[in-house]
Specification:
280 residues, alpha+beta, SH3 type barrels, five-stranded antiparallel β-sheet, two-stranded antiparallel ribbon, disordered C terminus
Length: 280
């Protein structure tokens, strides 16, 4: 990693700590074969395609299926038990078997579920996650748009699983980038109605006849396109581009640590499920 090469009002000294973290991870995994090292980022893709329709993208559940990220009973299950449940399904519960995914993809799903649960081992990074949380919800302004661990805004992507499944270098590059690619579902627009009223927000739904915006307070507004004077679309990200000036190198280290490791302590503080019903 070359985070220390990024210059701005001080230099971020993350290379040494990250190298040490890699060495520690290598020591812990030295007895594992490559096939037994599932990727949580790959697991996110498999989870989104096969599991999120019922359990939700964040694993918190929906009207179709219960939450599996914050459920204490699910958290207590071993990786092997979870893999068997994914492969074999749960008869009589509505959860089908996913044997067609194969063993590797099932392990990747379980690895990603552990990320959602906050059960992965912490990465060795400079900075302090507690101070990073204060920056996230304070002068960094991140929470005005982003949700993390159930708190924050609505306009940007939920970051609960982003840090644990993304490298610190990639996170820093995104924070400091001047030319971000806006993902689908997060493009913004200003609409002007026939009466001259203007509304700005993120385009959540659109078809040939209508447009739905979400405002910063989380509320939605629906417009018939035939009633609009204009729709001004923006290709620029609404995420601020002045973090080099807004945050010091220490601030950024603290923020990175919170994004990457904050969910680990968060997961351990989740309320426990006192349902003593057996897993089966």
């Amino acid at each position: 990693m070359i985070l220390a090469s990024i210059a701005f009002a001080g230099r971020i000294s993350i290379r040494t700590a990250t190298a040490q973290g890699r060495s520690q991870q290598a020591d812990r995994r030295s007895d594992q074969s490559p096939a037994s090292r599932p990727s949580s980022s790959a697991g996110e893709t498999v989870f989104a395609a096969n599991c999120s329709g019922c359990h939700g993208l964040d694993g918190q559940g929906s009207e179709r299926a219960p939450g599996i990220a914050g459920n204490a009973r699910v958290q207590r299950l071993s990786d092997e038990r979870l893999s068997n449940l994914v492969s074999d399904g749960v008869p009589g519960s509505g959860m089908p078997p996913f044997q067609m995914l194969g063993e590797d993809k099932v392990r990747e799903v379980v690895s990603y579920l552990r990320v959602l649960q906050g059960k992965q081992a912490p990465r060795s990074l400079p900075g302090d996650a507690t101070r990073g949380k204060q920056i996230f919800f304070g002068k960094g302004g991140c929470s005005s748009c982003h949700m993390i661990f159930g708190e924050g805004g609505f306009l940007g992507p939920d970051l609960s699983a982003y840090g644990p499944s993304t490298s610190a270098q990639a996170i820093l590059d995104t924070i400091l980038s001047q030319d971000r690619v806006v993902p689908m579902g997060y493009k913004t627009a200003i609409v002007t109605t026939g009466t001259g009223s203007r509304f700005e927000g993120v385009i959540r739904n659109e078809d040939n006849f209508s447009l739905q915006l979400q405002n910063r307070d989380g509320s939605f507004q629906f417009f018939e396109k035939s009633d609009l004077q204009s729709v001004e679309r923006s290709s620029r990200s609404i995420m601020p581009s002045d973090y080099r000036q807004r945050l010091s190198s220490d601030d950024l280290n603290d923020l990175l640590n919170y994004l990457v490791n904050g969910g680990i302590s968060q997961g351990s503080s989740r309320p426990q499920d006192h349902d003593d019903e057996k897993d089966d």
